[in-house]
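dumping this here so i dont lose it
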């Protein structure tokens, strides 16, 4: 048997009781941590412009965008560009938009410490984030 529960605007008391019930039966509960169209759109619209730009350009380029394509000037830094994505994912989980532990959307590419060479969206997420970044709606 598969049961899907969606609760719009739960009261804090109801949410707490439901989460306690689910925790009691955790061995039998499977959390859906898939990036759906709706979740991807919510994330995209919750991001600042620079973070949106990374997702949009990477998604429209088969999942990868080079750092040079994102820099406004040759030596400008990209430091802090993807931190808002991580924070928005955490905020979305806290707000109940998706479960905690959602997969990272953008992965920095590079030699390690220092300047990144680019950013990668995992292949299986490219299409959902391409749709989210090109025609986001608020129908959720």
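and the seq i came up w/
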């Amino acid at each position: 048997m598969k049961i899907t529960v969606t609760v719009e605007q739960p009261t804090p008391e109801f949410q707490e009781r439901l989460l306690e019930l689910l925790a009691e039966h955790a061995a039998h509960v499977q959390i859906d941590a898939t990036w759906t169209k709706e979740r991807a759109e919510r994330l995209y619209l919750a991001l600042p412009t620079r973070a949106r730009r990374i997702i949009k350009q990477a998604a429209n380029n088969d999942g990868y965008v080079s750092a040079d394509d994102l820099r406004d000037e040759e030596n400008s830094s990209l430091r802090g560009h993807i931190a808002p994505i991580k924070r928005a994912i955490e905020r979305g989980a806290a707000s109940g938009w998706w479960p905690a532990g959602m997969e990272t959307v953008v992965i920095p590419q590079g030699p390690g410490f220092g300047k990144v060479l680019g950013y990668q969206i995992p292949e299986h997420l490219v299409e959902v984030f391409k749709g989210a970044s090109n025609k986001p709606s608020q129908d959720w």
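The longest strand covers residues 64-66.
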